[in-house]
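Q: How would the C-alpha cells look for this protein?
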Amino acid sequence: MDLGIRGKVAVVLGASKGMGRACAEALDREGCLLAVCARDAKPLEEAFPGADVLVRACDVTKDADREAFVEAAVKRFGRIDILVNNCGGPPAGGFGVAFTAKDWQDAFERSLLQVVKWTEAVVPHMKGWGRIVNIVSTTVKQPNDALLLSNSIRPGVIGFSKTASRELAPRGITINSVLPGLIRTDRAMELAEAAAKRSGISVEEALGEKAKEIPMGRLGDPAEIGATVAFLCSVPAAYITGTTVVVDGAATRGIP
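A: Here is the predicted structure in C-alpha cell form.
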C-alpha cells in the first residue's frame, strides 16, 4: 500500500529509542524527510544518518529547545508536514504515593502541555496539508492503579485533540492519538521492575504475568506502534481525525 507521503517532512519527538524511534523508522521507510530529536542526539545520529535528516538534542518540555528545533526544521526543509508528539510518561505510583506539587506540575508539562505547545508551533508551517499524531496510552480509557499522574493528566490530550481537530480539518490537517497498551519499551521495563520488587519475583516473570492479561499473550512491539502512526500520517487516512486508535492486543476492556 502506497501511503503517499514520500518527500513529506516529518518531525518526530523522542526518537532515540522505543516507540519514538519506531515511528521515525516507519516514516523513514515511507520516504519522509526526517527532523528528529531527543535529549541525547548521539543515538539519533547513529540510527538516522544522511543528509536528508535533521538531528538535534532537544528537551521537548523546554520552550527554547522547541523554538530552536522548529526554526531549524523549517530552515532546512521549508515546511513541516507531519508531527509525532512523543514524550516519556511521568513517574509511576498510585494514590498512596506522596507526590509533591512539583511532581504534578512536571507531569502536566510532560504529558499535556508539551503536546499543546508543539502542535501550536508546527501548525503555522503546514502548507495546506498536515498530520499530527500523539502517542498517549490506554490509561486514558482504562486507568492503571500504579499510574496516578498519567491517569489524571493524559486524558487532557484527547480533549485537546478532539477540539483542535475541528479547527484544523478545513485546513487539511488531521490530529489523532495512538493509545499503546503494554509495549516492550524502557517504560514497560521500569514498571515491570517495580512490580517484580513488590512481588519478590524476577523482571521476566513480572512481564510474563502481564502478558497473561493480554488476549494475544504477548507484549506489543514498538514497530507495531510505528506502523499505526505511519498509516495515520498517510494520504489514505485523510478522513480520520479527532479520534483515538488503541494498539494493545485486545487488553483494554472498555468499549472505544
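The chain is about 45% helix and 15% strand.

The chain has two domains: 9-183+221-247, 184-219.

Upvote if useful.
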